[in-house]
């Protein structure tokens, strides 16, 4: 079967891409009521971090199979 | 209160999680060939997989919310749950106890009691564990529905039934393996979903140093105010922390609770099984950087009038559990909110799946096969395990509705552990390390230990005796009472097991080989001799111990 790390990578990269995309949208369409520290754009940098982590996990385990 | 508003993106992330765990359960189903695959994940896991699952089985969202709230209430002393209240016990399990558990090829903790003592001790513990597991699972479900209802405005019944049905589906598909997979996914979602709260809090307040400066002395140290209970937020002395939490409750939970130990049984060999709790110990030590830090950040913000941050109130009572959700709302824009809610949901569901997978194993092997159908085939046991999963989830729902009608039942969770786990640790310790402990000694020790713990709880609750009799101090908290009650229950079980053993029939020594320390020579195979020192459990246990000591000294 595929190792668990492959699935971890998959869900983190999908989540990361969605959050990063939301961050880009919010950058150009800021909400009327902003969260504290909104101007640091956490969606963008946290989304990028999650995506990198997720993609690395997915690629490293893409061709692996475990018992 | 105003509930947290979710946008389409947040709902998408939540739906993605539900679809993902169901998909994994379905994917793994085709690899479930026999009962060992279903109940013990085929005993093929690495120490990383088993270790993260070992930790995550304990890492429910109830704990995340509760411990963040408790930090607001009691201060840094809550870190004791993660350090002295976990690490020594986890290392002891890996180094000293795992060889007996793993080598005897048992499928559950009650299974060890059967081999070491007798059938009646096994059945007594199996019933106590099954009841405790269903109670905890139901309370977990109730707490989840309460959080979703309070903070998201979700319908109580719908959120409970949808989550329960999802857990039932993926555990029924592929048993312990799917529980372990979702627990590991939950581990990563919790770190990515909740650690950002601490990061943002540090950015807002300025630095970690600034956070500690703005918290009073009774709240920002670990040991220096433990000489007098009146000097610290938890109102407990170092004796209560060391004996009650650090020794009895911690060792009772981490070394004998099948919910966590089952993950180590899924390891591929003995060295991996021994490494399982040791690997987990490093990540356990890191958790305060989410939980404790977030609690202290909430405390600092709530005491800064300019921040505009206040915890919720239920009438005149402060709702401490609201600290973490309110920090999420404060810092997380749309998208990240969905991730934060998914992390909490994942925590609740993985916690419930852990309880259910432990319940179906104990029910199938230690109650059904032991009492009801002794000749059941492996294929029949596999079917029984799947049926027990569904029944277990339904019984959890019943418990959850019961908990709903008695909201204070959540206070009883620590008490439930002190009724079952604290005495069991005395039985296990004596059973593994003292040859002459007898089956009747173990059985009556357990009966008296569990009975006395329950009686002490009731006696204090209804005012038959003063709580100060247990805690030996006039100032104490409910937490302190839990710690001390666990200690007395352990002592009563320990003493009565020894006394009864002195007067009852011993098991022949040849039946105890491989189960008791004095009769089990540790023979290293040729392959084990070739394992380098940096892959050995002892090396990593020492590394973990050094970090544990350093953290305690640094935050003294």
Short description:
Chain A has 67 residues and is an all-alpha fold. Chain A is built from two helices and no strands.
Helix-strand layout with pairing:
The complex is a heterodimer of chains A (67) and B (556).
Chain A: H1 4-28, H2 42-61
Helix pairs in contact in A: 1-2
Chain B: H1 8-29, H2 35-40, H3 47-56, H4 61-74, H5 87-103, H6 109-116, H7 119-152, H8 156-205, H9 208-213, H10 238-256, H11 258-265, H12 270-286, H13 291-302, E1 313-314, E2 317-318, H14 323-331, H15 336-372, H16 378-405, H17 413-433, H18 439-461, H19 467-471, H20 478-502, H21 526-529, H22 537-554
Antiparallel strand pairs in B: 1-2
Helix pairs in contact in B: 1-8, 1-15, 3-8, 3-11, 3-12, 4-13, 5-10, 5-12, 5-22, 6-7, 7-8, 7-15, 7-16, 7-17, 7-18, 8-13, 8-14, 8-15, 8-16, 10-17, 10-20, 11-15, 12-22, 15-16, 17-18, 17-20, 18-20
Structure description:
The complex is a heterodimer of chains A (67) and B (556). Chain A has 67 residues and is mostly helical. Chain A has one domain. Chain A is built from 2 helices and no strands. Chain A is rod-shaped. The N and C termini of chain A lie close together (6 Å). With 556 residues, chain B is mainly α. Chain B has one domain: Sodium/glucose cotransporter, CATH 1.20.1730.10. Chain B has helices at 8-29, 35-40, 47-56, 61-74, 87-103, 109-116, 119-152, 156-205, 208-213, 238-256, 258-265, 270-286, 291-302, 323-331, 336-372, 378-405, 413-433, 439-461, 467-471, 478-502, 526-529, 537-554, and strands at residues 313-314, 317-318. Chain B has a two-stranded antiparallel ribbon. In chain B, strand 1 (313-314) and strand 2 (317-318) form a beta hairpin. In chain B, helix 5 runs antiparallel to helix 22, helix 15 (336-372) packs across helix 16 (378-405) and helix 17 runs parallel beside helix 20. The mean pLDDT of chain B is 87. Chains A and B meet through helix 1 and helix 2 of A and helix 1, helix 8, helix 14 and helix 15 of B.
């Amino acid at each position: 079967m595929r190792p668990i790390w492959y699935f971890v990578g998959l869900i983190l990269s999908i989540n990361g891409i969605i959050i990063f995309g939301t961050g880009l949208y919010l950058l150009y369409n800021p909400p009327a009521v902003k969260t504290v520290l909104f101007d640091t754009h956490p969606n963008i940098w946290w989304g990028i971090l999650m995506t990198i982590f997720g993609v690395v996990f997915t690629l490293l385990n893409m061709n692996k199979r475990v018992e | 209160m105003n509930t947290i508003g979710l946008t389409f993106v947040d709902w998408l992330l939540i739906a993605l999680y539900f679809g993902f765990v169901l998909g994994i359960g379905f994917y793994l189903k085709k690899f479930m060939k026999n009962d060992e695959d279903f109940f013990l994940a085929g005993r093929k896991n690495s120490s990383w997989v088993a270790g993260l699952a070992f930790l995550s089985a304990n890492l429910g969202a109830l704990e995340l919310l509760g411990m963040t709230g408790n930090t607001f209430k009691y201060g840094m002393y809550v870190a004791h749950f993660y350090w002295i209240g976990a690490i020594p016990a986890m290392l002891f399990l890996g180094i000293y106890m795992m060889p007996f558990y793993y080598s005897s090829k048992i499928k559950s903790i009650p299974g060890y009691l059967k081999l070491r003592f007798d059938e009646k001790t096994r059945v007594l513990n199996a019933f106590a564990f099954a009841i405790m597991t269903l109670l905890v699972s139901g309370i977990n479900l109730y707490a989840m529905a309460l959080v979703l209802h309070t903070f998201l405005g979700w319908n109580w019944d719908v959120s409970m039934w949808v989550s329960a049905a999802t857990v039932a589906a993926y555990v029924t598909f592929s048993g312990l393996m799917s529980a372990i997979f979702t627990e590991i996914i939950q581990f990563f979602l919790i770190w990515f979903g909740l650690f950002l709260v601490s990061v943002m809090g540090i950015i807002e307040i300025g630095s970690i140093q600034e956070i500690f400066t703005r918290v009073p002395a009774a709240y920002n140290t670990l040991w220096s105010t433990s000489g007098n209970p009146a000097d610290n937020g938890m109102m407990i002395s170092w004796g209560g922390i060391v004996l009650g939490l650090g020794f009895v409750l911690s060792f009772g939970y981490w070394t004998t609770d099948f919910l966590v130990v089952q993950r180590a049984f899924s390891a591929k060999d003995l060295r991996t099984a021994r490494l399982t709790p040791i690997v987990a110990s490093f990540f356990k030590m890191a958790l305060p950087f989410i939980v404790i830090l977030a609690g202290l950040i909430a405390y600092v913000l709530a005491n800064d009038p300019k921040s505009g941050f206040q915890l919720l109130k239920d009438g005149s009572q402060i709702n401490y559990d609201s600290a973490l959700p309110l920090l999420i709302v404060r810092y997380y824009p749309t998208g990240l909110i969905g991730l934060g809610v998914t992390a909490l949901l994942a925590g609740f569901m993985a916690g419930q799946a852990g309880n259910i997978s432990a319940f179906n194993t104990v029910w199938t092997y230690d109650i059904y096969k032991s009492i009801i159908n002794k000749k059941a085939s492996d294929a029949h046991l596999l079917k029984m395990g799947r049926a027990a999963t569904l029944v277990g989830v339904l019984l959890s729902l019943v418990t959850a509705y019961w908990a709903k009608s008695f909201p204070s039942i959540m206070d009883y969770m620590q008490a439930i552990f002190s009724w079952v786990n604290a005495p069991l640790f005395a039985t296990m310790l004596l059973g593994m390390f003292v040859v002459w402990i007898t089956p009747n000694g173990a059985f009556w020790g357990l009966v008296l230990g569990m009975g006395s713990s329950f009686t002490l709880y009731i006696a204090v609750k209804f005012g038959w005796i003063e709580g100060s009799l247990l805690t030996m101090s006039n100032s104490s908290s409910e937490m302190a009472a839990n710690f001390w009650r666990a200690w007395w229950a352990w002592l009563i079980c320990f003493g009565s097991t020894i006394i009864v053993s002195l007067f009852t029939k011993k098991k022949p020594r040849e039946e105890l080989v491989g189960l008791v320390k004095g009769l089990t020579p540790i023979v290293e195979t040729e392959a084990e001799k070739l394992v380098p020192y940096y892959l050995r459990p002892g090396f990593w246990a020492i590394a973990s111990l050094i970090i544990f000591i350093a953290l305690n000294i640094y935050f003294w």
